[in-house]
Amino acid sequence: MASTFEKLKTGALMGSSVGLCAGLVFGTLHLLRYGSGRQGIIRTLSTSMISSAATFGFFMAIGTVIRTETLRKSEN
User: Fold this and answer.
1) By the number of CB atoms within 10 A of the CB, which of 1, 31, 37, 49 ranks highest?
2) Residue closest to 34 by CA, chosen among 26, 65, 11, 56
3) pLDDT tens digits for 23-76?
4) d(Cα 58, Cα 17) in Å, to the nearest integer?
């Protein structure tokens, strides 16, 4: 059985992957609607992707650890 730290890493990686995809979609929609402004296309899109990846990864990692601890308590 995987350790809690392994589950944390897996949750963070999965959440970051989902966040990158969501940031790409929403960042592209933002660029199409409002343009890039002074920052430029690449910087605007990368900011959206990185912030979404960090947020999704953080919450997915925490949720995975909570779920792991709950499952371990119910097994005992």
Assistant:
1) 49
2) 26
3) 999 999 999 999 988 999 999 999 999 999 999 999 999 999 998 877 667 776
4) 12
Buried b / exposed e over 22-61, threshold 16 CB at 10 Å, is: bbbeebeeeeeeeeeeeeeeeebbeebbeebbeebbeebb
Q: From CA 56, how far away is CA 36, in angstroms rounded? A: 24
Query: How many domains is the chain built from?
Result: 1
- Taking the model in full, what pTM does it have? 0.83
pLDDT category at 2 given cuts 50, 70, 90 is confident
